[in-house]
């Protein structure tokens, strides 16, 4: 309760007028980037790329997508109800220029924070869901990201539903200092509460998932899924090489490498992700995870 009261002082509850952002979520021009595949350099038409769920039809490269787009791909049409949209970032440590950075991030990403949370149905199965947007300040986790994820998981606890968390982050948001680091403990606590209640959490690691997000809720799911070739780790490979003065193995910190080492349960292509999650939900609910 103490943290909640503190956040109420820190975070503005008045939602800014962002109707143009919501209206533009269906505007595919956000993903243009010339639509040249970073992997095979193929030029892909907008409609073709969208039809393939923003996966290159030539080489299978998975383009980065926003949280709202991912939610649309996973949930039944029209079933999503957003939560905590009124919780927006303030400037808790008076970091110079932070407010301007937030506005610029909104304009570029067309989302109002690095995570979108809510609940809905996946093949008529109720689920809580949180999906991160790397395009918004590198998907960095500040106090709003932590609070939104916490509220999402609390909704799952109250409704006794499973939860899906899709990650995409560069780590903690330095502009919020210790308030950002606090979110690692908060989100981890909420996953522990889900475990206590016997409610499964399925985490989908997307490119990239690093830093404080990896060191907290991203690796605490009951089943950890990764998209193909997603970069997953704490520190970046260049930082590690500079520290240990050694060349890292090929594919280090990529999804397939982590599956081999046991850090990730499976790698699932985007086109199969919805069906995989439905299977996992059914398996866990029928088998009964049970309270710990």
From TrEMBL:
| Residues that, per the record, bind Zn(2+) | 37, 40, 56, 59
* Domain CoA carboxyltransferase N-terminal, chain residue ranges per copy: 33-292
User: What top-level branch of life does the organism fall under?
Assistant: Bacteria
- Which cofactors is this protein said to need? Zn(2+)
| Subcellular location(s) per record | Cytoplasm
InterPro entries given for it? Answer: AcCoA_carboxyl_beta, Acetyl_CoA_COase_Trfase_b_su, ClpP/crotonase-like_dom_sf, COA_CT_N, Znf-ACC
UniProt cross-references to Gene3D superfamilies, sorted A to Z: 2-enoyl-CoA Hydratase, Chain A, domain 1
Q: Where are the zinc fingers (C4-type)?
A: 37-59
Q: In which pathway does it act?
A: Lipid metabolism; malonyl-CoA biosynthesis; malonyl-CoA from acetyl-CoA: step 1/1
Any GO BP annotation: malonyl-CoA biosynthetic process
Reactions this protein catalyses: N(6)-carboxybiotinyl-L-lysyl-[protein] + acetyl-CoA = N(6)-biotinyl-L-lysyl-[protein] + malonyl-CoA
MF annotations from Gene Ontology: acetyl-CoA carboxylase activity; ATP binding; carboxyl- or carbamoyltransferase activity; zinc ion binding
Q: What is its EC number?
A: 2.1.3.15
Q: Name one GO cellular component term.
A: acetyl-CoA carboxylase complex
Annotated family: Belongs to the AccD/PCCB family.
Assembly, per entry:
Acetyl-CoA carboxylase is a heterohexamer composed of biotin carboxyl carrier protein (AccB), biotin carboxylase (AccC) and two subunits each of ACCase subunit alpha (AccA) and ACCase subunit beta (AccD).
Protein name as catalogued: Acetyl-coenzyme A carboxylase carboxyl transferase subunit beta
């Amino acid at each position: 309760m103490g943290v909640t009261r503190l956040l109420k002082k820190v975070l503005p509850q008045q939602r800014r007028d962002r109707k143009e952002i919501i209206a533009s979520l269906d505007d595919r021009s956000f993903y243009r980037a010339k639509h040249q595949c970073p992997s095979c350099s193929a030029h892909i038409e907008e409609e073709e790329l969208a039809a393939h769920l923003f996966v290159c039809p030539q080489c299978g490269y998975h383009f980065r997508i926003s949280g709202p787009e991912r939610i649309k791909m996973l949930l039944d049409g029209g079933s999503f109800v957003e939560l905590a949209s009124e919780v927006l970032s303030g400037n808790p440590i008076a970091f110079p220029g932070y407010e301007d950075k937030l506005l610029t991030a909104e304009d570029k990403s067309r989302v109002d924070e690095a995570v979108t949370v809510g609940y809905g149905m996946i093949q008529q199965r109720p689920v809580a869901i949180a999906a991160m947007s790397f395009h918004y300040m590198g998907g960095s986790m500040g106090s709003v990201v932590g609070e939104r994820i916490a509220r999402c998981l609390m909704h799952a606890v109250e409704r006794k539903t499973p939860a899906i968390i899709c990650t995409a982050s560069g780590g903690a948001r330095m502009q919020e200092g210790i308030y950002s680091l606090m979110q690692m403990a908060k989100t981890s606590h909420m996953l522990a509460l889900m475990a206590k209640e016997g409610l499964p959490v399925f985490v989908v690691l997307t490119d990239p998932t690093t830093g404080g997000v990896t060191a907290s809720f991203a690796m605490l799911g009951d089943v950890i899924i990764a998209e193909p070739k997603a970069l997953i780790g704490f520190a970046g490979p260049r930082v590690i090489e500079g520290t240990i003065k050694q060349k890292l193995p090929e594919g280090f910190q990529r999804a397939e490498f982590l599956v081999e080492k046991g850090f990730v349960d499976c790698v699932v292509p985007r086109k199969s992700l919805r069906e995989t999650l439905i299977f996992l939900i059914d398996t866990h609910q029928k088998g009964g995870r049970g309270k710990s």
